[in-house]
Amino acid sequence: MRDDLKHIIESLLFVSESPLSVRQINSVLDLREPAVIRECLQELAEEYEARKGGFYLSEVAGGFQIRSRPEYREWIRQLLQAGPSRLSRAALETLAIVAYKQPVIRSDIEHIRGVDCGGVLRMLLERKIIRVLGRKEIPGRPLIYGTTRRFLELFDLKDLKDLPTPQEIKSLSGDAGEGQERAETPAVSDESEEDAGAEEGQKNT
Amino acid sequence: MRDDLKHIIESLLFVSESPLSVRQINSVLDLREPAVIRECLQELAEEYEARKGGFYLSEVAGGFQIRSRPEYREWIRQLLQAGPSRLSRAALETLAIVAYKQPVIRSDIEHIRGVDCGGVLRMLLERKIIRVLGRKEIPGRPLIYGTTRRFLELFDLKDLKDLPTPQEIKSLSGDAGEGQERAETPAVSDESEEDAGAEEGQKNT
Amino acid sequence: MPDDERYHVKVENIFEGPMDLLVYLIKKHEVDIYDIPIALITDRYLQYIAWMKAMNIDFAGDFLLMAATLAHIKSRMLLPVHESLEDEDAEDPRLEITRPLLEYLRMKAAAEQLAGRNILGEDTYNRQPPKEELDDLKVDPSTESLQVSLFELIDAFQQVLEKIPGDHRVDFSEERFSIQDKIAEIVDILEAKGSVVFYELFAGKTVKAELIVTFLAILELAKVGLIEIAQQVQTGVIRLFYL
């Protein structure tokens, strides 16, 4: 019986395109003790872990989802013919600010980044990674932004509390310098033009 | 090693939307002996059968596919019934006109969209996203439509004043001068990825 | 000019904005972010701007704004020390730039942490149930719940707006939305009670704008024929009736 239950839950996780919460699962199973669902999920997670097969159970965005193991990403990318599709550095920075500072308005984001963020915000809205929460009651009534459930799904986060605490910056020699490689390129030498150009070209492939 | 291979194949089957042939799998793995792939598939099939879990390996016309077990289809049906669906383009357009032009009558909506909207309006009424406010005192006494509280809830709006104007969204990428191109470029190259993502995310449209 | 284009690409690629450039300079000169040698950094910053100008490279006005800020801090640093000591509240002028820099770096570090996670669609993938699996499990549409974002709605409306005929222009003023909200409110009351006394709708309202909006909403309701307004002869009470 218990195994049956576990396997029904497994089949539900299997056909669902978004993470399933315990509540959602119980809306189907209608158990008096929804705690059993959590136990089954725990067992499934352990089973997948022990087996080290092609997938694992991820606790994400307030629910559970079966996902392929990151170890196999290269093979999967080849199969799906998906190019190296990543959010740009500008998009990631803007997204980080929205995530950590939400609810937040555009001018606050631009104040931190020191550059215009309209295009990036639009792209993040289009991709449903952020959303409009409402308007701020100040002159101009600007739109307020926050992250979506999709954001949690994409970045494998249980909930917003699951966001890692940003480190305090001690000095620039350490962690803060990451992602800064491009800025290392000597500013004035001529070859670097080529490098930068090449990099730019790669990005668009 | 053999287990690894089996699990890579499992991850490929797991993420693939269509059945995979031995040849397709080998186009990723590039083995000199593709027969090993068939053996791995055989082992996976036996393993799933012995386990009697939520899924099994199905050999269909085009190749192999992991499928949820038919025994659990009633549960799956219930889950899908409860899952969220999307509004069609026509429904979104009609809803947008009602939202921004209310109180509005059907002939005005049809004048703007240039097509019959009766079916869409009925659907929106059934779902309680719009409502009939009354009848207009002109020949034919047509129904007047407006949005409901559920509409506000659906879009997380406090009131109609919170609806962003299309200009506002447009201005996110429009008003910023030159420094903007940068932000736009990654957005464009990212979009192709979003297409893939959107396909993934697409539900029962 | 192909050459110009190449430079153009390069600068944008390296420094997205003035903050980016500052971080680079501070790192390059290995200075303590909590004790920035403002004269040195300002000089290098201005050199860089000058170089960009000399190379005919377009750069955003933000770069110049930052240059002005740096120059301002530098001049304040040149003030005699005792002057600033007299004022207990006087803080290090450099904080004007250190604080936002630290915040910027914190967010950059956070972005790096996000990028390092197992990202769906890059590092890990979820299953896409094949169509055949779900085909025979069709659902009854009336009981479906909906998934839709505000962005989709506005996007749809944008398409509509492009084909909108002249006499159907939409009024996006805030007042217009206020009237729509008010109409919804009045219809709610009328749906519940059937009629309402005119003055009740204004009761307790003191803000002039709201009084006007309420009045305009009533006019619009009457105009489209949703309500009938009637005054009782004896009492003079005006009532709105839902039709």
What does the model show?
Chain A is an alpha+beta fold and 205 residues long. Chain A contains ten helices and five strands. Chain A has a three-stranded antiparallel sheet. In chain A, helix 1 (2-15) packs across helix 3 (35-51) and helix 5 (89-101) packs across helix 7 (118-126). Chain C is elongated, with a radius of gyration of 32 Å. Chain C has helices spanning 2-14, 18-28, 38-54, 62-77, 81-86, 95-115, 131-135, 150-163, 174-193, 208-223; strands at residues 145-146, 195-197, 227-231, 238-242. The N and C termini of chain C lie far apart (71 Å). The longest helix of chain C has 21 residues, at 95-115. At the B-C interface, strand 2, helix 4, strand 3, helix 5 and helix 6 of B face strand 1, helix 8 and helix 9 of C.
Strand-and-helix sequence of chain C, N→C? HHHHHHHEHHEHEE
CA radius of gyration of chain A: 22 Å
The helix fraction of chain A, in percent, is: 40-55%
Q: For the report, how would you describe the main beta sheet of chain A?
A: 3 strands, antiparallel
Strand content of chain C: 5-15%
Count interface residues per chain for the largest interface: B-C, 75 and 63 residues
Strand order of the largest sheet of chain A: 3-5-4
Number of E-type strands of chain A: 5
SSE succession of chain A: HHHEEHHEHHEEHHH
Number of strands of chain C: 4
Distance between the termini of chain C: 71 Å
Please report the distance between the alpha carbons of the first and last residues of chain A. 52 Å
- Using the alpha-carbon principal axes, give the shape of chain C: elongated
Number of helices of chain A: 10
**Which regions of chain A have little confidence, pLDDT < 50, spanning 5+ residues?**
174-205
What's the structural blueprint in terms of helices and strands?
The complex is a heterotrimer, with two copies of chain A (205 residues) and one copy of chain C (243 residues).
Chain A: H1 2-15, H2 22-29, H3 35-51, E1 55-60, E2 63-68, H4 73-80, H5 89-101, E3 104-105, H6 106-113, H7 118-126, E4 130-135, E5 143-147, H8 149-154, H9 181-184, H10 191-203
Antiparallel strand pairs in A: 1-2, 3-5, 4-5
Helix pairs in contact in A: 1-3, 5-7
Chain C: H1 2-14, H2 18-28, H3 38-54, H4 62-77, H5 81-86, H6 95-115, H7 131-135, E1 145-146, H8 150-163, H9 174-193, E2 195-197, H10 208-223, E3 227-231, E4 238-242
Antiparallel strand pairs in C: 2-4, 3-4
